[in-house]
Design brief:
This protein is α/β, with parallel strands linked by helices. Among the domains are: 24-177, Rossmann fold (3-Layer(aba) Sandwich), CATH 3.40.50; 262-327, Arc Repressor Mutant, subunit A (Orthogonal Bundle), CATH 1.10.10.10. It has helices at residues 25-43, 65-76, 92-101, 118-130, 166-171, 183-197, 204-212, 218-235, 243-253, 262-274, 279-285, 290-303, 318-327, 335-338; strands at 55-58, 80-85, 106-111, 132-135, 145-148, 153-158, 174-177, 200-201, 240-241, 276-278, 307-310, 313-316. The longest helix has 19 residues, at 25-43.
């Protein structure tokens, strides 16, 4: 905190308890039950090889999987958290090092687990199933050998569960699907974070607007929307976020009333022009890689009913057409007039 007892950055606040997490009730309730059962068994002299999980967290980006993973780590009271991602652990030496150095007080969290190749997934599956690591010759010695592994806690998070091997998915004892948040949950998340940081706001309307323009994801509501609104207020010499600050922030961000940004609108404009089109045509039209369009832009537009997929063809809905017409003259403002 600074000298005014206000926070300066969204990420200063760390969530260390599942009870402090707003939204995703099906996930939180499931994990609470699993944790309570785990501690009960351990308190009653459960098996010496008892360990929690493994846990698989699935769902759209920005919906709180990393936050929940860290809350699980804190709830377990583990002393060490090792964080990595699917692409990084494709380096065999990296994955081996993580597994060998983990002990019973270690939580291993692999984010974007869909980035793991088949070999890494197989190594991880064996490690979880047998608590052993089969080290081929040439990595640690001239001969192949087996290394016993500790009862560490493993948490995987992925936005694309279908890219993981079925055997690995089935090995995860606890599976938690995440979904987009309700506006009411997002309002409370934004309010909770603003209050914790000591960031005052003019009215509840400020909090609601910030929540409504977040594509129903906490990451955007907090890291982008709330943080930018606070920066705007600070630029005007205030420790209070006003409605004017909020409106100015979203003009700067080019975020409309539905939370869509310039790339989203460019996509909808292109699709409105064609009526229907393939992914390749649309990605070329808006100058973005097809994978980016498919994974970043389209999921929310589909979820909210702006577009539909018909096999490999994308079709704009009436809702999508109306959005294009209603926002075409609202978002892009003449910055000269603002000055």
């Amino acid at each position: 905190m600074n000298k005014n007892n206000n926070g300066i950055d969204i990420n200063q606040i760390k969530i260390t308890s599942l009870s402090r997490i707003q939204g995703q009730p099906q996930v939180i309730n499931m994990l609470k039950v699993q944790l309570e059962a785990h501690f009960h068994i351990r308190a009653n002299n459960g098996p010496c090889d008892l360990y929690f999980g493994p846990v698989l967290l699935t769902g759209p980006s920005g919906t709180g999987k990393t936050m929940v993973a860290k809350a699980i780590h804190a709830e377990l009271g583990n002393l060490r958290l090792i964080e990595s991602n699917g692409v990084t652990v494709n380096k065999k030496t990296e994955l081996f090092s993580i597994l060998i150095n983990a002990d019973a007080d270690t939580t291993i969290f692999i984010d974007e687990a869909q980035g793991m190749n088949s070999k890494s997934q197989h190594i991880l599956l064996t490690a979880l199933s047998e608590k052993k690591l089969y080290v081929p010759a040439g990595i640690a010695s001239a001969h192949s050998h087996i290394i016993p592994l500790a009862n560490f806690t493993m948490i995987l998070a992925t936005t694309h569960e279908y890219q993981l091997q079925g055997a690995l998915i089935n090995r995860m004892r606890i599976s938690c699907p995440f979904y987009y948040y309700s506006i009411e949950d997002l309002v409370e998340i934004v309010r909770q974070r603003a209050d914790a940081l000591g960031w005052a706001y003019e009215s509840d309307d400020v909090i609601r607007i910030i929540a409504q323009r977040a594509k129903r994801t906490p990451r955007l509501a907090l890291n982008r929307n709330l943080q930018t609104c606070w920066h705007v207020a600070q630029c005007h010499g205030r420790n209070l976020i006003t409605l004017d600050d909020t409106n100015e922030a979203f003009v700067l961000l080019q975020i409309d009333e539905n939370g869509l940004d310039s790339s989203d609108r460019a996509y909808l404009n292109a699709l409105c022009e064609y009526g229907k089109a393939s992914l390749g045509v649309l990605s070329s039209k808006i100058s973005l890689p097809g994978l980016t369009v498919q994974r970043i832009i389209e999921p929310y537009l589909i979820q909210e009913g702006f577009i539909v997929k018909d096999n490999s063809i994308r079709v704009i809905t009436q809702k999508g057409k109306e959005h294009v017409m209603n926002t075409s003259h609202k978002i892009i403002k003449d910055t000269k007039n603002d000055h």
